[in-house]
């Protein structure tokens, strides 16, 4: 596999970032010069660790555009469309896909927690990979702008925590944002956690306040969602709503909302979802911008 930086033909040497040795060194030692498609300055209030170079006083999250037609782009696009199981939008089309490279200490924190869960449970005996890591969708609003595949029509992101999309891009997911949304919803079926779903169609609902008209093409609207790695570990499987839960019972690492359980107002869950209760249990890996002609939600 080649390095994901545009026009770099060197072999990928770091599987976590998909970078060659040269670009990984730039990312670690001088992130402001890393050749990404977009870079967003991370929140300076977020704690730093020794993984940052002493000369690096500013952290960046880097977005690297995947070229349409490449194997990696096609794989994610196919997953997005296959995971759209509810017919709640018409004319679906992926507009752009970006790899997300967070500051290295955020990646390290995720991997440290993954190793911790792997040492606690033996999922291989259950036919599951260790740590039970899954690729799941998370929908949200990007209030300022959306990154499309045409750089000339992209305005600068606001890079503030008031914008959910930018907040995630700046620092990954944050438990401080649990229960805070721009849609006025307070009900959380699985408690006070970070939510993910195997279904892109379910994640679609949570980004409707960030929908924008697609530039240069009337009649199409655009939203975003994140494809994220999530450490499920040993999931708790409640049969009733656990709205006040701040985590699963002892011995569990996450909560699994199964289809047909956890009724609310007489309505059972129609599409499964998961909740985790610590921010190092999840790591966004792709930013997907997509458009549609109509939505019924």
Specify the CATH architecture. Alpha-Beta Complex
Following the backbone from N to C, one meets helices and strands in this order, namely HEEHEEHEHEHEEEEEEE
Strand content: 15-25%
Instruction: Name the average pLDDT.
Output: 87
Number of helices: 5
Parts with pLDDT < 50 across at least 5 consecutive residues: 46-57
Which structural class do you get from the secondary structure elements?
Answer: alpha+beta
Protein name: 5109_t:CDS:1
Domain PARP catalytic: 49-297
Organism: Ambispora leptoticha
GO molecular function: NAD+ poly-ADP-ribosyltransferase activity; NAD+-protein mono-ADP-ribosyltransferase activity
Walkthrough of the structure:
The protein is an alpha+beta fold. It has one domain (about 65-295): Alpha-Beta Complex (Phosphoenolpyruvate Carboxykinase, domain 3). Helix content is about 15%, strand content about 25%. It is built from five helices and 13 strands. It has helices at about 20-30, 70-80, 105-120, 165-170, 200-205; strands at about 40, 60-65, 90, 95-100, 135-140, 195, 210-215, 220-230, 235, 255, 275, 280-290, 295. Strands 1, 2, 4, 5, 7, 8 and 12 form a seven-stranded antiparallel sheet that branches. A four-stranded mixed sheet has the order 6-11-10-9, with no helix packed on it. Strand 7 and strand 8 (about 220-230) form a beta hairpin. The longest helix has 17 residues, at about 105-120. It is globular and about 55 Å long. The relative contact order is 0.17. The model is unreliable at about 45-55 (pLDDT under 50). This is 5109_t:CDS:1. GO terms for molecular function: NAD+ poly-ADP-ribosyltransferase activity; NAD+-protein mono-ADP-ribosyltransferase activity. It comes from Ambispora leptoticha.
């Amino acid at each position: 596999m080649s390095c994901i930086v545009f026009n770099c033909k060197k072999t990928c040497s770091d599987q976590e970032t998909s970078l060659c040795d040269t670009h990984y060194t730039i990312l670690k030692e001088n992130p402001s010069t890393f050749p990404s498609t977009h870079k967003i300055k991370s929140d300076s209030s977020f704690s730093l660790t020794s993984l940052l170079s002493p000369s690096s006083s500013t952290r960046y999250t880097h977005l690297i555009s995947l070229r349409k037609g490449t194997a990696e782009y096609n794989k994610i696009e196919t997953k997005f469309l296959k995971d759209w199981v509810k017919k709640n939008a018409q004319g679906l089309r992926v507009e752009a896909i970006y790899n997300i490279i967070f500051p290295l200490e955020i990646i390290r924190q995720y991997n440290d927690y993954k190793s911790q869960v792997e040492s606690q449970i033996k999922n291989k005996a259950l036919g599951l990979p260790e740590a039970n890591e899954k690729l799941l969708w998370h929908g949200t609003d990007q209030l300022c702008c959306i990154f499309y595949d045409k750089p000339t029509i992209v305005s600068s992101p606001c890079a503030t925590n008031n914008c959910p999309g930018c907040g995630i891009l700046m620092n990954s997911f944050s438990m401080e944002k649990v229960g805070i949304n721009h849609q006025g919803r307070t009900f959380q079926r699985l408690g006070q956690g970070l939510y993910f779903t195997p279904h892109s169609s379910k994640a679609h609902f949570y980004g409707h306040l960030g929908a924008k008209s697609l530039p240069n093409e009337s009649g199409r609207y655009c939203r975003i969602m994140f494809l994220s790695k999530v450490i499920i570990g040993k999931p708790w499987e409640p049969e009733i709503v656990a709205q006040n839960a701040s985590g699963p019972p002892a011995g569990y690492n996450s909560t699994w909302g199964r289809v047909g359980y956890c009724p609310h107002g007489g309505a059972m869950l129609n599409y499964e979802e998961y909740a985790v209760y610590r921010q190092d249990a999840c790591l966004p890996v792709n930013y997907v911008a997509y458009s549609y002609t109509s939505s019924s939600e």
